[in-house]
Write a sequence for this structure.
């Protein structure tokens, strides 16, 4: 292991825990591929045919934040991303169609993301399904000597750039998303994809 001025870099070339000072100096990057927002079941099933041909997808969900104690909201959005295409499924409008839950059950398609256990639970409230092919990056990275857990820190340590979390607490039940919301949602799923790809390479 090598100890740089502000943190320990392990034998794999990654920070064990990336220091905040170093993370904050990294360039800010967001997804710059094609973003498709899906708000009807027919379109969801068309897109699912494409997703069924992929080996790896980045995975994330968004839920409208609750600021009242004891109040929870239903999941609003499911994001699945490849390296250059991100699909934002508006579950608050379409529920979880069977064609989409089949992607989530498919063991041959890796779905990689951070803190996915709670995401899966919220999705199962919309439709019962048996999750298959999910990779929890928080656990997966430990074999590479990385102790960081959050997506932002993992992105910094493994991919060498920062992602913005500024839209995290925005309203995901809005009738129309802002460009910033779409970019944020796509970036979170895409980062999960890129981290996994980098680690297995």
């Amino acid at each position: 292991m090598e100890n740089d001025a502000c943190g320990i870099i392990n034998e794999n070339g990654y920070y064990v825990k990336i220091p905040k000072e170093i993370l904050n100096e990294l360039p800010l990057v967001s997804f710059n591929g094609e973003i498709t927002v899906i708000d009807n079941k027919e379109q969801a099933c068309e897109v699912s045919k494409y997703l069924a041909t992929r080996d790896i997808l980045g995975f994330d969900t968004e839920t409208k934040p609750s600021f009242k104690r004891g109040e929870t909201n239903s999941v609003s959005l499911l994001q699945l991303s490849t390296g250059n295409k991100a699909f934002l499924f508006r579950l608050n409008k379409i529920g979880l169609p069977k064609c989409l839950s089949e992607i989530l059950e498919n063991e041959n398609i890796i779905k990689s993301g951070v803190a996915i256990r709670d995401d899966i639970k919220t999705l199962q409230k919309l439709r019962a399904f048996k999750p298959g092919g999910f990779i929890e990056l928080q656990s997966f990275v430990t074999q590479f000597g990385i102790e960081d857990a959050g997506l932002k820190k993992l992105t910094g340590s493994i991919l060498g750039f920062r992602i913005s979390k500024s839209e995290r607490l925005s309203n995901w039940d809005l009738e129309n998303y802002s460009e910033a919301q779409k970019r944020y949602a796509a970036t979170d799923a895409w980062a999960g994809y890129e981290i996994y790809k980098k680690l297995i390479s």
About this structure: The domain at 31-145+163-200 is CATH 3.30.420.10 (Nucleotidyltransferase; domain 5). The mean pLDDT is 94. The chain has one domain: 31-145+163-200.
